[in-house]
Amino acid sequence: MNLKRIEVIGDDEEEIVEAARRMSDKYDFVVTSGGIGPTHDDITYQSIAKAFGLRLKLHEDALERMKKLSRPHPSQPNFSWDTPSPALSAKLRMIELPIDDSRDENSQVLFVSDKLWVPISVVNGNIHILPGVPRLFEQLLDGMKPLLLPRLTDPEGKGIHRILISTPMAESQVAPYLTELAAKVEPNGIKVGSYPRWGKARNTVTLVGRDKEYMESLIDEVAKSVEGVRVNVEGEDDVEGEPDLEQQG
């Protein structure tokens, strides 16, 4: 799965609305992280609902799971699910989800682990709203694997090849050639990368793509143009005591 874009957006409703619409329109799989807690600045659900003209609905299955799997905080010894309170209202905010009545609700609210009450809210068919807590985010994203793998043409990434060329030349020196090379190979699905190795005498040029035969045919040309050699891992041709590129200017 190719990562196309990462954006950091503050707790601003209009910015979230704009980004949600734009990302949903442009990409087929969008993930949001954070802003779905119980406090006033947790506005992801309401903002994304607004972006697509949806209502927020208390999700009953999520509520039952929350009751079963969550425990009151020690600071709330008298909390009751049956007694209205500010704490209860705050908890319920976390399961008031954007719902599109024209779509199957089961496809809009996903539970990927029997150990978690936290749902994954799916909006507009491709926006997946996840919590910002790293541990929960990772667990939920991992739980989505069975849903994602059938969509991938190469689930294990075995069809992706990466070639490394080690060069003693500065990035600024090889930049014109790499720009031309990138334009040349892009129609074949090949990405050209350049990575400085700070404090080392050599930088790395990469070719990444699926057409292994075509990529192999480029190695001699690239190596000659950047005065480099192919390596299996970065640093395998480093020489101890060799001056680094920064020292050489």
Could you please describe the fold and organization of this structure?
There is one protein chain. The radius of gyration is 25 Å and the shape is elongated. With 249 residues, the protein is of the alpha+beta class. The protein is built from nine helices and ten strands. The mean pLDDT is 91. It has a four-stranded mixed β-sheet with strand order 1-6-5-4, sandwiched between helices. Strands 8-9-7-10 form a four-stranded antiparallel β-sheet, covered by helices on one side. Strands 2-3 form a two-stranded antiparallel ribbon. The longest helix has 15 residues. Helix 1 crosses helix 2. Helices cover 35% and strands 18% of the residues.
Strand order in the sheet with the most strands:
1-6-5-4
The total strand number stands at 10
Q: What is the element string, with H for helices and E for strands? A: HEHEHHEEEEHHEHEEHEH
What is the distance, rounded to the nearest whole angstrom, between the alpha carbons of the first and last residues? Answer: 38 Å
**Fraction of residues in helix:** 25-40%
> What global shape is seen?
elongated
| Residue windows where pLDDT falls under 50 for at least 5 positions | none
Average pLDDT, all residues? 91
Main sheet: strands, sense, barrel:
4 strands, mixed
Strand content: 15-25%
Task: Supply the number of helical segments.
Answer: 9
Task: Give the helix/strand class.
Answer: alpha+beta
Mind telling me the C-alpha Rg?
Answer: 25 Å
Offer a few descriptive terms.
elongated; four-stranded mixed β-sheet; 249 residues; four-stranded antiparallel β-sheet; alpha+beta; 9 helices
